[in-house]
Write a structure and sequence with these properties.
7-stranded mixed β-sheet, alpha+beta, two-stranded antiparallel ribbon, binds coenzyme A
Length: 146
């Protein structure tokens, strides 16, 4: 853990590091990469990259493209399989929460699949609550109100 550095992505092209990266059944495809590049340009977006000796460890993206006013959305979070369960995702989530608070948001949301237990556990450990999202029923929406 000592050698892992979390940095803020400064340029949309850095998102290319995700191309063909996968973890469990999750893989970054062209559509996702294009959307991430588009949302990178939105006001107040925060993209975080974790590396160890310049090698990819984890990625997380937060943006304001959510249909409720003044909420941030954790759109992506992925930790490379060799680095899971050592608290990296928790650190990334904490930075997202702090960023959203600093920007005066009312809260932060994220969505995950019904069978994505690691992500559900991660949300619950960080005080997100299951939320009955009228716009999306294909998985679980988690919300943290500030
Ligand atoms: C979800 C994910 C980001 C968690 O990353 P992580 O760095 O391993 O998470 P943390 O180490 O901060 O773990 C926090 C908690 O999540 C839970 N968790 C993490 N991995 C888990 C697993 N494989 N099984 C069950 N719970 C798990 C645990 O409760 C863990 O705390 P603990 O180890 O003290 O019990 C990671 O599993 C991942 O990249 N998954 C694939 C991509 C993905 O599904 N992203 C979410 C899309 S919505």
């Amino acid at each position: 853990m000592q050698n892992i550095i979390i940095s803020v992505i400064k340029n949309e092209d850095e998102v290319e590091i995700l191309r063909d990266k996968s973890s469990f059944n999750y893989k970054y495809n062209q559509t996702t990469i294009d959307l991430l590049k588009k949302n990178f340009k939105l006001k107040d977006s925060l993209y975080l990259l974790a590396t160890e000796n310049n090698d990819f460890v984890a990625f997380c993206s937060l943006d304001r493209e959510w249909w409720e006013d003044n909420y941030f959305f954790i759109r992506e979070i992925m930790v490379s399989e060799n680095f899971q369960r050592i608290g990296i995702a928790k650190q990334l989530i904490e930075k997202c929460i702090q960023h959203a608070k600093d920007k005066g948001a009312d809260g932060i949301v994220t969505e995950t699949a019904f069978d994505n237990y690691p992500m559900q556990q991660l949300c619950e450990n960080n005080n997100f609550k299951k939320w009955d999202n009228p716009e999306w029923k294909d998985g679980i929406t988690y919300k943290l109100e500030f």
